[in-house]
Protein 1
Amino acid sequence: MRTQVGIVGAGPAGLLLSHLLHLRGVESVVIDVQERESIEQTIKAGILEQGTVDLLRQTGVGDRMMRDGFVHHGINLAFEGGLHRINLTELSGGRSVMVYAQHEVLIDLIAKRLGDGGDIRFGVTDTAVDGIDTDQPTIRFTHEGRQETLECDFVIGADGSRTMCRYLIPERRDFFRQYPFAWFGILAEAPPSSDELIYAHSERGFVLVSTRSPSVQRLYFQCDPETKVDDWSDDRIWAEFSARLGPSGATVTEGPIFKKDVLQFRSFVCEPMQYGRLFLAGDAAHTVPPTGAKGLNLAVGDVHVLDRALGAFYQSKDTGLLDSYTRTALRRVWRAQWFSFWMTSMLHRFSDASDFDLRRQIAELELVTSSPTAAKTLADNYTGLPLG
Ligand code: PHB
């Protein structure tokens, strides 16, 4: 088998890149270890930046998102017994975010790729990438019991945080930060508790009130990384939300909880993001804590750069944009690292936090909710830097 661009991973990065390349007439094949059903059902984050929304719309994969997603023009910060709205749209000069779950984006991208005759191999095993330091790399894998060898010009490692592609880059530098907490997440059958998301600081720890649809809520509370979901009954969970949100006056609408999970918190960046004919995109190259809602949007940022770089290569054999891929992509990645870290450290309770630290967090939250300059910094970064 032969293609121009071999893509390992059918997540947001891999599928969107395959779609964008197709629009320029560049061929690709996407492989993934997971089956289609599992990719389409795995619940992840749900906030799309303005640039992500625009790109999906402009490239013909935004119809369902525009119909079923929810545009949010603000978020609320809760602290010290009050609820403070940040008007994202006014502060950012007209930008907003879309609440539309990541797996819905994947459903749309898979349908579009297959509808356009794209080649996606689900449920592959024994993947091996060779020859990335030559101009004819290969991806070997087993699909439906047959061993295949895919010859390509480029290999894209879009294989998520459990990546194998990352380890093919020699002389890599990994930048890493662990956090002493995690998020306990639930999905509940209940109408949204709030029209807009609430990020709540509390002495018992952080809470995020998010949503998925008019009948499903997504809520999180900060917990110990060792927390076992089975130790938390529904009643205990609702009591914890009330205890943390109570002082701000916000309340949660209770309903049957149909999913509980614990999300680990990490910040990670791998440099460089390329070696020879291998390019990493999305979580294979970096991870952010979910507080800034940047994970999927960073994958989109990488792919936007890669698509133009590969386009230039196929149009005029110009490798300039490919050569500078790491430098270009990392600017956005490190900005998002900073933003996610900032939101995380401003809102969470650290186990070793003193009363001084708590007062300092409140002062920071007061700054962000009262100074238009500080609020604009939050709004600009939350709604996202323009792509390109
Ligand atoms: C979510 O709805 O899953 C969500 C929203 C905002 C975040 C993180 C997660 O910052």
Protein 2
Amino acid sequence: MEISYLSDGAVPAVYLRGMDQDGGNRTEIGELGEFGLIDRIASQFQQPHAAVVRGIGDDAAVLQTGGDHYLLWSTDTLAEGIHFDLAYMPLRHLGFKAVASNVSDICAMNGKATAITVGLGLSNRFSVEAVDELYSGIRLACDRYGIALVGGDTTASPKGLVIHIGIVGQVAPDRIAYRSGAKPGDILCVSGDLGAAYLGLQILEREKRIFLQHPEMQPDLSKFPYLIERQLKPEARVKTVEALEKAGVVPSSMIDISDGLSSEVFHLHRHSGVDFSVFEEKLPLDQSTYDQALAFNLDPGTCALNGGEDYELLFTVRQEDWEKVVDLEGITAIGYATEAGMGMQYISKAGNVHPLMALGWQHGRSQD
Ligand code: ADP
Ligand code: MG
């Protein structure tokens, strides 16, 4: 389709005013939701290039570029006021977290990250020293994960800070893990522990509120080192990918937990065409997560299910591989896959069966 501004008569401002060019009603993005919008975009691009092994829909795109490995390619944008608050997020930590969350998407394909690009939108609120701080965190993450910074883009931004990271990695074709490979009977596993980053965020938000009301009071975060660390400086689970390789196991499906466990279990369900049963008593929670959830009057299991930003890996393994996985450090079986139609189930500690709900992490949407 050729685009001609004049003959199409598409005055861009009309989209903002509430009408499309045919005079129809405007659809709010919130009506479709993030995933509905992505599906709509994906449905408009159905003739992929021959090199595309897997396009939109997984944690990274998969390309065949001629070598013996697949190329993995993913991208993520962090916007101030939506994904981070500089009132309590130090720029160095932000730089680290932006890279780690991208590395996590490569891990979720069972791959190894190679290089990143960094696009920055900077308002005049930011100094050269502030940019140095941000890049010191980016550098730390590059060193930690053995990846190179190979380019990027720098632009002015009318308001706030926007960080856009592109990442490439690679994986051998016989080791790749998609969201779509789970089969009934597979065991659902998770790395590390859940819910801590969410509680870290609740503590930081609370301290910010107190500080705004009483600027003379200095926040004391020293009582919650683990929860704060998990929010401000999460790690990508590169070690889990390495451990699985050493154990000779390829997960039958995998995704990383950015939006919350339940939301990611639903992605595996949707892509694999199986249902899942998840057991509350199996959910891995750090003691400090458990204690702090109760202190906030929150249900610890709900924090683990819906908290988000854990950047752990959620994956399935075939039953015959379970023996090789059971003793790996930091891996917990939390449920299993069942035939489609059995229902998405959450089994409470008391043994009651509830429907699993995918509340997920709702990022605030800014109002222009
Ligand atoms: P993740 O949480 O793993 O980063 P997302 O939920 O952001 O994944 O994205 C899911 C899939 O949709 C990915 O394959 C991503 O590349 C694709 N996607 C997201 N936004 C867009 C967009 N605006 N245009 C095309 N594809 C998109
Ligand atoms: Mg992901």
